[in-house]
Known about the structure:
The complex is a heterotrimer.
Chain A: H1 2-5, H2 9-42, H3 46-70
Chain B: H1 5-28, H2 47-80, H3 96-124, E1 132-139, E2 142-147, E3 152-156, H4 162-165, E4 183-186, E5 191-197, E6 202-206, E7 211-215, E8 221-225, E9 231-236, E10 249-255, H5 257-274, H6 284-298, H7 300-303, H8 321-324, H9 327-336, H10 351-362, H11 375-384
Parallel strand pairs in B: 1-5, 4-10
Antiparallel strand pairs in B: 1-2, 2-3, 5-8, 6-7, 9-10
Chain C: H1 16-20, H2 26-32, H3 36-64, H4 75-110, H5 118-126, H6 128-137, H7 156-159, H8 162-191, H9 204-235, H10 249-283, H11 290-303, H12 319-331, H13 333-347, H14 356-379, H15 381-387, H16 391-421, H17 427-454, H18 468-497
Helix pairs in contact in C: 3-4, 3-5, 3-18, 4-6, 4-8, 4-10, 4-16, 5-8, 6-8, 8-9, 9-10, 9-11, 10-14, 10-16, 11-13, 13-14, 14-16, 14-17, 16-17, 17-18
Amino acid sequence: MAAELRPEPAVDAPLRAANRRTALAVALIAVLFFVGVIAAQFVGDTAVGMSVVAAAVLLFLALAIGRNLRK
Amino acid sequence: MVRNQWEHRALTRMLAKGRAGLAALAALAPGMAFARLEYDLQPPVTPIAQQMYDLNVYIFWICVIIFCAVFGVMFYSIFKHRKSVGHKAVQFHENTTVEIIWTVIPFLILLGMAWPATKTILAMRDTSASDITIKVTGYQWKWGYDYIQDGFGFYSNLSTPLAQIENREKKGDNYLLEVDQPMVVPIGAKVRILVTAGDVLHSWSVPAFGVKQDAIPGFVRDTWFKAEKVGTYRGQCSELCGKEHGFMPVVVEVKSKEDYAAWVAVQKTKVAAAADDPSKVWTVADLTAKGAEIYAANCVACHQANGKGVPGAFPALDGSKIVTGPLPAQIALVLAGKPGTAMPAWKQLSNADIAAVITYTRNSWGNHTGEAVQPAQVVAARKEQ
Amino acid sequence: MSAIPHDHAVGHAADHHDDHGHHPTGIMRWITTTNHKDIGTLYLLFSLTMFFVGGCMALTIRAELFQPGLQIVHPEFFNSLTTLHGLIMIFGAIMPAAVGFANWQVPLMIGAPDMAFARMNNWSFWLLPPAALMLVGSFFVPGGAAAGGWTLYPPLSVQAGMGMDLTIFAVHIMGASSIMGSINIITTILNMRAPGMTMMKMPLFVWTWLITAYLLIAVMPVLAGSVTMLLTDRHFGTSFFNAAGGGDPVLFQHVFWFFGHPEVYIMILPSFGIVSQIIPTFARKPLFGYASMVYAVASIAILSFIVWAHHMFTVGMPAAGLLFFMYATMLIAVPTGVKVFNWLATMWKGSMTFETPMLFAIGFLFLFTMGGFTGLVLALTPIDIQLQDTYYVVAHFHYVLVAGSLFAFFGGAYYWLPKWTGTMYNEKLGQWHFWCSMIFFNITFFPMHFLGVAGMPRRIPDYAQQFADWNMVATVGAFGFGLSQLIFVVALIKCIRGDGVKAPAKPWEGADTLEWTVPSPAPYHTFETPPVVQ
C-alpha cells in the first residue's frame, strides 16, 4: 500500500528535491519582506527604506509571474 | 420541443420577483419624508464642491451607458444563445483584433474621465492666498476651532440630548448633526483650514463644501473652501475614532460679512470675560454646579452620568480611590491623562473648568469629600507637570 | 491496485476507502489527514462556519441600524462588531474558502496525486481554528474585542485593550497559514503538472491560484510587519506610529494598504478562476481569449501593488501623489474590463443552459461589474473626497466581495459538489438559493450607494434622520440574505448524505478539465500515475 502512495524513489528524489528548492526560495522571499518592512523603519529615512521594500516586492512579482508566462 | 425546465422556471421567477421587488420599493416611497435628500450628493455651495458634483454626474452617465451596452449584449446572448431554443455553440475562442479593441477603447474612455478630475485635484490642493485661517482640532469626541488670527477658540460638542439618542424623547430635525457652538465663516472668503488631532485619527468633513481632511495627531494638514451661500452646513467625523465617532458632528455657519464681523467681536469679548482670575476663590456650590456642566460635556461618555463607568472598559468614579483620595493625584491625572488607555489629557480645559469638574466628582453620587478645588491649585499642578 | 497506467475505472467508485485502508477513521482522520481532498473539505466547512459567525455579527449591526437611536448595543460593542465582522469574513470565510477550492481542485486539475507538501498542508489548515477562537474569544476579555475597524489604524488601535493583542496574534497565525499554503500551491503548480500540461495549457483556475499565491507571499509578510509594529508600539515602547515619539500614524496606513490592496485581489482572483471554469462549461464552448485572460490576471496582480494610497486620498497627500494613485487605480479597469468582455465572448453564440453554477457565474458577472463601476467612481479623487469613509465604500466592497467572490464560490460549490460527494445537488434548492441571494443582496446593498452619496459615514451605530429610510430597507434585505444562506446548508447536507441523484464522472456536458475524468465522488487517491495531456 505505502509503495502505491508514493512514486518510486527514482522518480521521487528529483521531484522532492525540486519541491524543496522551490519552497525554500519562496519562504526566504517571504521572510525577507517581513524583515525588510521592519528594518526599513530603522535605517535612515523611512520613506526611502519602504520604497526599497516596495520595489523589491514588485520586482519579485514581475519576475515570478513573468517567468511563468514564458513557459 | 422540450424546453429546459430549469430555465423556464428561472426566467418566470426572475420576472415575478422583479415585479415584486419594484412593488415593495414603491410601497415604501410614501413613507420616505426625506426621500429627496437620499439619492444625491448634498447641494454644493463652493466651487470645488460644484466641480465634484459635476464630475460625479458625468462619470455616472458614462458608467450607465457602458453598463447598458455591455449587459444589453449579455442579456441578448442569454435569450438567444440558449440550448433550449436550439442554438448550437459556435467554436471560436480567440481574436487578437477584438482583444486590442476592447483594451484600447476603455483606456481612451478613462483618459476622458481623468482630465476633468486632474483639474479639480490641482484646484483642491491650492491653499495659497487665503483670507482667513482657522485651526481645526479633532478630539475624542468633539471638535476644537481656533481662530488663530483673531485670538479666540472654542470647543464644538454634540448638542443632541442623550434622551433623544436613547429613544426617550422624539428626535429633532437635526438629530446628531447639531452642536453647541458651530464654526462660523464669512461668505465669499477663501478659508484655509489647518487640521490636526489631539489624540487619535479623526476627519473633518463638510459635504456641501466638498471638504474632507483627516485629522492626524502630531501633524497639521491643510485644505480650503470658499462658501458662496449663507446658511448652516453639516457634516460628520469621517474616521473611526472610538465609541463616540458617530456623535461628533461638524457644523459650519456661513454668515454675511457684516454678521461675521459682529460675531467675531462678540467672541473676543467672551474671551476677555472668560479669562479666569486664578486667584478667585469659588464656593463648593458654584464649583459643583459649573463642574456638572463640564462633566456632562466631557466625561459622561465614558464615566457615565451616574459615575459608575462601564465595567471592564471605563472605571467608576463613584467610590473611586483616586477621586476620594489625595487631591494632587487626581489633578495630575485629569491634566495629563493616562497614556496607553482611553483617558485623554484634559490640560486644554481652563483652570476653572478643571477645578470645577474635580470638585463635582468629589461631591457627587456616593462621594462626599466636601472638598473644593480652587483654580489656583490647578495652576500650581500644571507647573509641576 | 496494479501497474496499469490509467486511473481507477468508474465501477470502483464506492470501494476506494476500503481499498486503500490504513488511514484513521473518525476524528483522528480529520486531525491527521494529509490528503488534499480531506483538507479541502476542512477548509470549506471551516469557512462556511465562519461565514455564519460573521453573518450573525452583520445581522446584529443591521438590527441596530434598523432605526435611528441606540436600541440594541452600546457604541463600543458596535465598533467591535464591525471590526470582527470584517476580520472574520476576510480571514475566516473568504480566504479559507478560496484555499479549500485550491486544495480540492488544483491537484485534480493538473493531474497531480496531492499537494507538494502534504503534511504542511495539514498544519496550514489546523492553524486556523485556534486563530478563529482567538478572534471570537476576544469578545469575552476585559475591554472587549478590538474596535478600531478591520483596518486597525493607530493611534486608536494602540489605545485599545487586550482584545487588540488577541487580534494581532490571530492575524499572525492566519498569515503564517496563508504563507505556508501559498508555498505549497506554488510548488505544486510549478513542479507537479502532468506531462504535456504546459503553463499555457493549465485551466484558468490554476493560473489564478498561482498568481494569488505569489501575491500572498508578497504581502502577508508586510501585514505581519505592520501588526508587529503595532504590537511593539502598544507594549514595548516603540513609536512607529506615534508622532510624539518621532513616528507617524499615516505610516501604518501606507504599510497596511500596501498589503491591503493586493489583499482584495487575493480575494477575487480565485473567483475569477472559478467563473472561468463555469462559463465555458455551460456555454459549451472554450474560454474566449485564454492567453489574454492569463495576461489580464497577471497585469491586475502587478498593478494592484501601485495603487494602495487610493484608500488614503483624504490623508493630505500632495497633488502629485493624488494624481499618480488616481491614474494607476483607473488603469486597473482596463485588464478587468478585458476579462469581463472575454467572459461575455465565451457566452456569445454558445449553447447555454442555466443550472445553478451558471446562474451564480452570471450573477457574478453582472454584480461584480457593478462593483467595478463604483470602484472606478471611487478612484476619481475629487469624488472620493465626498465618498471616502461613507456607505458608498461599504456598498462598493460588498458588491465585489459578496456578489463577486462569494457568489463565485457558491457557483464553484454547486459545480464541483457532484465530484466531491458523488451526489447531484438538488437543482430546485440551488435555484431558490440563487434567486433569494440575488434579490436580497441587492435590497441590502444597493441603497447603501444612496446613503453614501447623501453623506452617511461608515462605522457609526446611530445616524441622522435623513438616512433612516434606506437603512430600514437595507436591514430587511440583510435578514433576508442571511436566511437565504440556510438554503445552501440544506442543499449541502443533502449532497453529503447522498440524498439525491447519483452523479456521473462528468455531470456537465461541456466540462473538459482533468477532474471530470475521475469518478464521482473522486477516489481518495487520484492520479497516482499522472495522466498524459495532449
